[in-house]
């Protein structure tokens, strides 16, 4: 195991805990949303704060960053859109009657989920509510979005004429133990996925393979066919709530309140690795270049060799739970309830891991070559035997 890391920079501008951290698609900026009711914009080039968004009347629960606009949602029941250059509030989306805890931006749509038991769809540009999704019996905690064009063949599409105009679907997970799939155009519920016996805390979508993964306080992860609604598999080995999920190359990583992360083969349901060493719940995780990075309630971030499960480094310095992590240009960003954004240099770990992967590929190549030579030798021997036997 490597030595404990020390942050290359600690950003202490927020006056309250940081609840979320978002990276822009172009990787140039980061956005933090805080308990102090403000959001801050950071440059990944110089790690300086270049924007301070003020206006919410309560704490910010979640944030999302595009290249030119930032979005925040709050316990004040509203969502705000901000100009990343001027810091000006461009729009306020009003309509929810309780805490807005999650937002998702897709195409020209802004989706939101709230403790008021609804999800909503807004026009990003017109500051207008387009649709309300009502049917959950408790708060909506998590969201996902896809288009039926991604998963359905033409002959399978049997939706109404109205829904043929817009084939977008919204997926919602709720504390009522259900996952629902909705047609965005009509607000009609397309599927209700039943099986969980606890709150659904996290969702991850694999539209090309028609699969949805849901993690719950019932200690399970479930896989669903998003076309038929059929439950495909149940992953049952966790001993605590499943808090976060990451899907990479048909490997599913799950972080839990049982202080572990587990890696599963999606196609077989087999658990192939368990990552231990956390002293509290695993609150967030991210896969990068063969390394699994985790954030925990024990105030530490960790780096594991994703294949072997070996702990490679511990990043110490935060005082409270790490709520979110991002990675860009071999820098690890961790945002914590202690109000700080910390930046860590992970070049050493990445370099060592690249060398290891190169050695493994080289060894596999030699093994493959030996196997080919062995097969060639065996084939020649076989031919000789056949000739001697007159076959």
Please describe what this structure looks like.
The chain has a domain at 16-93: Thrombin, subunit H (Beta Barrel). It has 391 residues and is mainly beta. β2 (18-23) and β3 (29-34) form a beta hairpin. The strands form eight sheets. It has a four-stranded antiparallel beta sheet, with no helix packed on it. It has a four-stranded antiparallel beta sheet with strand order 2-3-4-5, with no helix packed on it. Strands 6-7-8-9 form a four-stranded antiparallel beta sheet, with no helix packed on it. The protein has helices at 161-165, 347-388; strands at 9-11, 18-23, 29-34, 39-43, 49-53, 60-65, 69-74, 79-83, 89-93, 100-106, 109-114, 118-123, 128-134, 140-147, 168-174, 179-183, 189-193, 200-206, 211-216, 221-225, 231-235, 242-248, 251-256, 261-265, 271-275, 282-288, 291-296, 301-305, 311-315, 322-328, 331-336, 341-345. Mean pLDDT is 89; it is low at 159-165 and 372-391. The N and C termini lie far apart (60 Å). The protein contains two helices and 32 strands. This is WDR86 protein. InterPro entries: Quino_amine_DH_bsu, WD40/YVTN_repeat-like_dom_sf, WD40_PAC1, WD40_repeat_CS, WD40_repeat_dom_sf, WD40_rpt, WDR86-like. Keywords: Repeat, WD repeat. It comes from Lophotis ruficrista. WD repeats lie at residues 11-43, 93-132, 169-192, 193-234, 235-274, 315-347.
